[in-house]
Each structure stands twice: as C-alpha cells, then as structure tokens.
Amino acid sequence: MKQKGIGTECAHNDTHEIMEHAHILPIFATSTFTFDDAAQGMERFSGKTEGYTYSRFGNPTTSAIEQQLARLEAHGLKNENGSRLELRALLHASGQSAMATMFLSNLKAGDCILSDHSLYGGTHEFLHSFLPQFGIKAIFADMNDLDLVEEVLQKNAAIRLLNLETPSNPTMQCVDIKAACDLAKKYNKKVTVDNTVATPYLQQPFAYGADFVFHSTTKFLNGHGSSIGGVLIGRDIEFMKTKAYNTYKLLGATSSPFDAFLLGQGIKTLPMRMEKHCSNAMLVANFLSGHPAVNKVYYNGLPGHPGYAISIQQMKRPGSLMSFELKGDITKAIQFIDKLKICVRAVSLGTTDTLISHPASMSHSGMPRDLRYKAGISDSLVRMSVGLEDVDDILNDLEQALQ
Ligand SMILES: Cc1ncc(COP(=O)(O)O)c(C=O)c1O
Residue 349 burial (CB < 10 Å; 0-12/13-18/19+)? Predict the structure, then answer.
C-alpha cells in the first residue's frame, strides 16, 4: 500500500481490529491480564508466545501509541535494503525515564558517553552528576566541532554513545545529525538524539543515521499539557525487545494507559499545531530581535543564530521554542515575567498557550553555574514556548511587559 501522509498517520491512532471496533483508542485500565490456563501464562512469560501479562510490561493502549510513534519517526524512511524502515518504541512515564532507559540499557560501569553540552537541565544533571555514581563517565564537547569530536573519540576508547539534543532546550543550539552519525559510525559508536523540541513532524533523526531517538512526549507531542510522558525509539529491533525492554521493565518506567490515551489525543493534531506554533514563533522572534530591551534572541529561525544553517538542512521549520536575554540582570528578567498578562508563567513547553520561564532558576537550576553560563544560560535569559494564540495578543503582552 502507498505510504500514508504524516497527517494521516497522526490522525489515526486507533487499532480497530484488536479493540472491538472502538473508534477512539480505549483506555485499558487494568493492572493485569488473565490466562486461559497456566501453560498460556508460562508461554507468555517465557516469550514463546506474544500476549499481555501485566501492565508494567505492556498494555494495549500504550502499545497502540508506541506503534504510532515508531511509525511517525520512520515516516517515509527506508532501511538499507530499500524497504520501509521499521522502528520499535517503548512508551515511558516521563521523558526523563525514557532517557534513563536509553543510557542504562546501553552502558555499564567503565563506559563513557560523549555528549554535546547544550542540553535540558535534567539530562545534564543525569549525565554530569548521577551516572558517575555508577562508574559511567560523561565527556562534554561541542558536537559541531568535528575535529574535536574525532580527537575525543580517538583518545577515549571507552565511549559507547554520542548524545545530541537538537535543537536544544533552551538556547536552540543545533547539531548536524548526519555529520555526527557519520563520525560515530567510523568509530563504531551509537548515536542518540533527544528530538523533543522538534518532534518527528519537523525532524526525523533516523533519516540521518541515528540509532535511538527519545522524546519528552509531555511537550509538543501531547501538546495540551495534560500528561507527563516519554518515549524511547530504536532502530535495532532485537536490542529494543531485549536489553531496552528489560531495563524499562526493571525500572518500572512504564506509561500509564490513561497518559498514553491523552498523548494519543494530542498526536492527532500535531501537524496543524506545529505549523501554527512555527508561524507564531517566527513573528515573535522577529519582534524580540528588534526590541531595545532585548540583548539577544536565541531562535534557530533567525539568520544570525548559529543553528540557522543546520536547521534549514535537517528541519522542516525551526520550531516554537526560543529564549532571549534581557538587557540588565536577573531582576529585569523577574520584573518582565511578573508583568505578563497573557503569556503563562510556567515551565514545560509545547502547549497550546504560550509558556514563559526562567531557566537559570527553574529548568536548569541543577546545572553548575559555570557550565550553565557556558551553555549560554545567563541569569537574564527568559525561555518562551510560543503557543497557538492570536499572535497580536502575544506581541502586545510582550510589549507591555518589556516597557
Ligand atoms: C528537551 C527535553 N528532554 C527531556 C525532558 C524531560 O522530560 P520530562 O519532563 O517529560 O521527564 C525535557 C523536559 O523539560 C526536555 O525539555
């Protein structure tokens, strides 16, 4: 059958055949599943036959969304034999747990990760402070400096994995995924990409050679701020079925079926939402960059941003997250945030309404100050996830708060 469009893939997350022809994906609110006899239970547990056993190990509602997310990341892509790319997804209770499954299933004591330093605060803290307790070390480098990356790879045979977040939260730094994957392959390393900020609608890291993608589905994929969730998606099906699945089960990182349902409702409108998010964001970024109270705008859709050229190469459009530095110190940022009337004061991103936060004291407060500054997160930096409101209302609100 001809490949469906990505909008169609988003609009359909139902699986009529296995769900009694329900039109909308049902919520399987059950912790466990019954067996016809003991032998069936034994066979399912041993993996000899497929079938649900216990909702921490898998549930029909979460499976439907896992399959949909795998289809979205693989949309239109081919494998090395020229057939449709097959991916496997595991739906998690949060983006943080999807990221933890990814690292813990790939690494053991003595191994190293090479990561770009521009990351979401929780990922940075996990790599910088948490994993070292288990003998796993992270080395941070600018992943666009390919000579440096190659030098680090040559010097550190213990590196197993390259970790990218592109565009990154909050400064929208972009990494050339293909260049990083080509280099990683030369040294037989795997590459993982946090695709939260872009979503599979705007960017598909598997097209450029990534081995794993993870998302905080809490953000644009859910799109309505109604649940916390995450997904880990992998190219190596056997690895996903064994090592990744085992780690996920043992961590107990499974999504609840109710959260999976809410996520599925959000995915249906992903393309339309992303288009409007991007159009509004471009207008907001242009407004902010011309404003006398603003020192610097970090948005990869602006030609002056270091990620601009890479974005054009690997993204459909630049997304809706941005940050900007106000002239002055932290007090200016606080005064500005407190004056907002329409934009909402809250962390998170990707909801229908515009969210504004202060990374230095909120999402990135767990990062050591010197590393935070190095990543461009100054005390007067404000993060903005541009929503779907009438853009004039957003601009008027920003104007009055910047006065
Ligand atoms: C880019 C990115 N990755 C991962 C996470 C973690 O996701 P969650 O909060 O769903 O655990 C976040 C959260 O803000 C994020 O912005």
Answer: buried
